[in-house]
């Protein structure tokens, strides 16, 4: 015989299933277990693409002297690289930590609102990306300073002070 709590649990699970839209998976707030959790980890190449997008945005934010946006993009790049290092332990920690210096230099230039220092630090950051790619035999993945802004749905100009 089923105990009352279990019946209640089943009933609420059925209710949840009925409410959930067709094809809906677990709510994103629920942690997944085992293989599902592994499958839900972002792929390294996707984390890198996310870093690449921020690398582009950082440049155009810096060029526009939108220092708040530039600071935000720098933190995003740092977070993606940290995520990559923690999820993919095959990445040499050394390669990841060497990124701290150029990232700090970028952050310092942003804090000082110094366009010249920003350009220099951005070059060092990009060189850091490439030197890790070389060290993992992916020297054909070469980052450079973006030449055109492919992102037309985001305004990089600093918000007007009210
Ligand atoms: C610690 C080493 C390391 C650092 C630092 C690093 N990468 Fe990568 N990157 C990799 C590895 C490894 C791959 C290959 C991932 C794969 O294929 O699974 C990769 C792949 C890429 C790719 C190819 C993804 C694609 O689909 O085209 C891009 C773009 C990229 N990285 C951008 C960057 C940028 C931008 C930075 C610097 C902000 C950076 N990477 C810093 C290790 C690194």
Automatic annotation (TrEMBL):
Keywords, A to Z, come to: Signal
- Family matches, as InterPro entries: Cyt_c/b562 (IPR010980)
Could you name the domain of life of the organism this protein comes from? Bacteria
- Protein source organism: Rhodopseudomonas pseudopalustris
Which GO terms fall under molecular function for this chain's record? electron transfer activity; heme binding; iron ion binding
Q: Where is the signal peptide?
A: 1-24
Q: What is this protein called?
A: Cytochrome C
Its BP terms in the Gene Ontology are: electron transport chain
